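The instructor's notes for this session suggest beginning with a concrete chain rather than abstract definitions. Hand out the sequence below and ask the class to guess, before any prediction is shown, which regions might be ordered.
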Amino acid sequence: MPNLPTAEYPGAIDTHSPDAIKKNVEEVLLDRVVKALIKSTEKAGTTSGIREPGPRDIVFKGSFEEVNDYYYKNLWSDGLPIVPPTLKKVEEFLKFTDRSPNEVIGLLPPARREATVWNIAVNGVMAGCRPEYMPILIAVVEAIGDPHFGLQHAGSTAGWTPLIILNGPINRQLDFNDKVGVLRPGNQANTSVGRFLRLFMRNVPRFLPGSSDMGTFGGNFFLVLAENEVDSPWHPLSVDLGFKAEANLVTVNSILSMSIPNPTQGAKAKDHLDMLAGLLQKQFRGNVMTFGPEMHPMIVMTPVIANLLAKEGVSKKDVRQYIFEKARVTAREFDADGAGLVDSVCNLVKAKKLPPLFCESEDPNRMLPVFHSPDELFVIVSGDPTRNRVFAANQLGYQGCATTREIRLPKNWGQLMAELSR
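After discussion, reveal the predicted structure:
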């Protein structure tokens, strides 16, 4: 939209008093609106004249350094060196899917560009992925392309980052790390697939910092969080989401922030559960303005803690229920955390934007949960199987809602993997 008229309010509006806002609107902003509309009318009918290259067009030839310089100048890289996506390399990725290269996965905002099997492969090459990761990459894009995910919010000033959670036998088959340093760079699978998602979001829907990506601070991409299903005493996240335990799944969830990796201590399950509830309560203080119609906060614990809890008969369902009941703030704190960005909690209940339990009375000291229901909480086992640590992460409500897709393997998957092992 090259002729879209815009008028900028002078300064950060949330730091101005009501009187200052009124003055700025009347004396500054209104004049800017009029000038922008007149200027837009004068330029009507012009076009950008930019031609989009075709999927198989050769856009550049040169050395590795020259290719990277060219991609960087065209805003096609994330600032790190990319693997040049030659036709040969892209076609190697396409061998690991039965789907047509031209298949459209979705039309992605804000650029409203088509996500295709072809451009998924291109960005997979660029991110340093291996060809056999291709089914995972397609499932990831299917997840963020689902309207439920709310990709259009990914450029908000909150600067949240999507996290890929991986479940199923494919975790071990493709050598994803689910133990020590699961979120630390070093393992090719976790690192490159995590990088792929941010690179793809930059190159196809075109989330570019300073224009369509307005994250105030922003954040780096997350590595893939693979669940350690072998050392866990419980069923994996896939079962919680309604799939079979052996299903290969990706779940993409927005992460606003993560807590520090807290050690939880004690010989009894209650000792650890109390610490988990306290950790989630602290993590969600100040996040009420982004509560949304659904939330999927996360507790990620090592197998040490999970097995200690399970030994006392504590299930994942018990963990979710305990934390839901204990991780609470007063209604006064809940309203204060909204900082004027949301209505009072009781008015939100009356508008049917929150469950009735949030306004069972008008007592400002009544205790309210920090998410809607126990089922929303993700309990995931991962990380060093010899340490007693846990972290909590809060999800941004209606922005980047947790969305899951099953990984579709090609019919000749067994043959392809056998050839790789030779």
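Then share the key points. The radius of gyration is 24 Å. The longest helix spans residues 18-42.
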